[in-house]
Amino acid sequence: MTETTHQQPAGAPRTGDGYRSPEYRLTRNSLRGLREDLFRDPFAYRPLPPRRTDGPFARRLPGRLRAFAGYLPHAVVGAVALIALMAGALSSGIPGGDTSALLVGALCGLPVLMTLVRPVGAFWASLAMTPVVVLISSDAQDWPWMPGAFVCHLAVLVVVALRTRPRTAAWMWAATAVYAFVSDVVGRSYFYSNSAPMLVTSAFALLVVSLWHVRHIAREEVTAQQTVTAQERSRRTLLEERTTIARELHDVVAHHMSVVAIQAEAAPYRVENPPEELERAFATIRENAVAALTELRRILGVVRAEDYEAPDAPQPTLADLDALLVNVRDAGLTVEKVVTGAVRELPPGVELSAYRIVQEALSNSLRHAPGASARVEIGYVLGGLGVRVVNGPMPGPSLVKPSPGAGHGITGMRERVAMLNGEMTAGPTEDGGYEVAVFLPVTMVNEGDA
Predict the structure, then answer these.
(1) Which residues lie closer than 8 Å to 437 by C-beta, 6 or more apart?
(2) Average pLDDT over residues 215-243
(3) Is the model's pTM score more than 0.70?
(4) Mean pLDDT of 50-71
(5) How would DSSP label each residue in 264-310?
(6) 260, 364, 374, 412 - which has most CB atoms within 10 Å?
(7) Would you say 391 and 422 are in contact if contact means Cβ atoms under 8 Å apart?
């Protein structure tokens, strides 16, 4: 005898009776979805919340009407329930039976109203109400849905599908089809059956609702993705601007630290027979300056790109503004410069930031308002430096069109100002131009503290 051993495939689910087929797993998952959608706590209290009132149409309404606009879906459902009630009462066919007719109408309208608070329970109530209406009506010509029951069940299917998801809509339609099939088998004595109209009409309505659901979900996902992308782009832009500022300030700080180290090394030789304590102090100053310079270069090496090359020329200052204005005028921008206050030497970081702010503001004027004129104002005031760059509106007929920007220039300006604890405002002017106003504080150094 030969014994054959079958190996279990990797990843195959193990059960007591062998391996489950894909068809079995698909059926099991489908039945699980049916149980979750229609049988798990079907009469749970799920009130329909008011709709948002910040849409383009609702914002145009007065305040009182805007508050009521949030309950427009509730009013629509109530109107449909009233229609179902009237259809059920008028088509009951009970002569002189006002109470019975009203009962039939109430049975047809109640499931529609239930969709506002218990949507899945409303579906089961609509199915259960359908044969009851037929039994109460004395002259039932339609089977299995009387006119009122037809309107009621169709409305319930649509509202519940809107409030749930496409899978629930599919299960409701399947349950309706099963009920229609069983009713046609049981009620063969009836001359007319409206099961086919109900299934076709409800299938079309649920298909439209499902497509709306898919479109709505896709729009939400796209909106969420666009929001995340915009945040990532803004964050990346902010980091790039900070990296650029750090690269530029490195040359300024490195220059001063190098000067400190050199002067600390040469200072003892300028004094005849310096004390030992003085030599140790200057040696400590030089060691700390060299260590700080080494750490600064190590940190800047992390944020620098691989293809970054340190500039050969020193970083620009406010003394280089005239050359910048000449280049801007050659590019076609009419610009004038006004300097107020006593011109004095400022810290290199302030001078560099002020120069870059003016440079970026003039570049924005060239880009967004070609043909306009600009004005640069530099104010040396007590406690700081004021910078104002304003351009006029773009002339009417112009062959050069403005180019859209990503807003990185304003971000870079704000980062430079925030780094120096300054203040900045930027926005359009009344005449259609644009203005950038900046104040950079400068700490005053008293002669006694120097």
Answers:
(1) 386, 387, 388, 424, 425, 426
(2) 83
(3) no
(4) 78
(5) HHHGGGGSSS--HHHHHHHHHHHHHHHHHHHHHHHHHHHHS-TT---
(6) 374
(7) no
